[in-house]
Specification:
With 341 residues, this protein is mostly helical. Helix content is 53%, strand content 5%. Helix 3 runs parallel beside helix 4, helix 5 packs parallel to helix 8 and helix 7 crosses helix 8.
Length: 341
């Protein structure tokens, strides 16, 4: 923060320069400060990085695969590996990511002495963790929901069979369990009815081939129930396309205000069309803050070319990329004409 206060333009610098100024230099100062403390204690400070008494700083980078652009992902890995090679830094990085091809290839071409891979597969029994997560979250719902009194008195809800079903459908992926909980924990809806609906939900025939069939079915159901009419469907699809197709071409369509201006949609209408999607999207209270997908798998679902549903953006295009830019240009021209009057 001190660095940014000194030079706010740092945010416009290259990724490598930001890493140097905002990470490497501050941590180097900390390392030197620790070394000075050792000297003041009449102990020997080892600045070569071999001092076992110094606990390295741990930086957690969650969801590297969700950074937009494979080149950016590779640059981040390369930068971090160079930092780890700087022995005086006393720093370690914990990176979580889906095993995308570009990420795997970048790690493979990186010095193997500076990194260790860990695949969180069935060997680590994720079902047990997911079960524990669901138990905890359902307890929170029973305590905090609008219907807390009646829910807390029902000792058989949720049943162990229901939780077991959710664990099985998660297939070791927390995102399914997390999305289910967010969908159920709606203060304006009955959690029992919502859980029953999810339990009765099964992938349609055209979704069964997906490795995330249960998650795809959940996404499709949430989208389907959130669109009461065709107008909502069109607005929602336009928002999804603007988010997916214009991320790297303009910074405008990220916030509520930006999307509203970009698509020519009233802000209130935009918010209403997304009101029931809080289980799969982050929809901020501020019009200036960014609307985000909660997980990269939702983007994958929307872009799935095998999906025959109305929400497959590759098959059912309400607004093509060229249409979006033509629409933007038209609105820009219209706004200019208004200003000139």
């Amino acid at each position: 923060m001190a660095k940014l206060m000194q030079d706010i333009a740092l945010l416009t610098y290259s990724m490598e320069m930001q890493m140097q100024k905002l990470v490497i230099e501050p941590l180097t100062d900390v390392s030197m400060s620790v070394g000075a403390t050792h000297l003041n204690d009449n102990s020997t400070a080892d600045f070569s990085g071999n001092d076992q008494s110094i606990i390295p700083h741990l930086v957690i980078i969650d969801g590297l695969d969700e950074c937009k652009g494979t080149q950016v992902q590779s640059r981040i890995i390369t930068m971090l590996s160079s930092i780890v090679n700087m022995q005086s830094m006393h720093i370690q990085f914990l990176i979580t990511s889906r095993p995308e091809l570009k990420i795997r290839n970048t790690f493979s071409s990186t010095d193997h002495s500076v990194w260790t891979g860990l695949v969180l597969d069935d060997h680590y029994d994720p079902d047990k963790d997911i079960n524990k997560y669901l138990q905890s979250e359902f307890s929170a719902i029973k305590r905090n929901h609008t219907l807390a009194t009646s829910l807390s008195n029902d000792f058989n809800w949720p049943s162990q069979n229901d939780i077991g079903t959710l664990v099985k459908r998660s297939s070791g992926q927390f995102i399914y369990a997390s999305s289910v909980i967010k969908y159920i924990h709606n203060d304006h809806r009955n959690p029992k009815q919502r859980l029953s609906t999810i339990i009765d939900l099964h992938p349609a025939g055209d979704l069964k081939g997906s490795p995330y069939a249960e998650l795809d079915a959940l996404y499709y159901f949430i989208l389907l129930t959130a669109t009461e009419n065709m107008e909502d469907h069109k607005i929602m699809t336009s928002i999804f396309q603007a988010k997916l197709y214009t991320y790297d071409t303009t910074s405008q369509p990220k916030s509520v205000l930006g999307l509203s201006n970009f698509l020519g949609i009233d802000r209130e209408a935009l918010r209403l069309s997304l009101a029931d999607l809080h289980s799969i999207m982050i929809i901020p209270d501020s019009d200036d803050s960014e609307i985000k997908f909660l997980h990269a798998s939702f983007s994958d679902f929307l872009m799935d070319t095998q999906d025959q549903s109305n929400f497959s953006l590759q098959r059912k295009m309400h607004m093509s990329l060229l249409d979006i830019f033509a629409f933007l240009s038209f609105n820009t021209f219209s706004n200019l004409k208004k200003l000139m009057k």
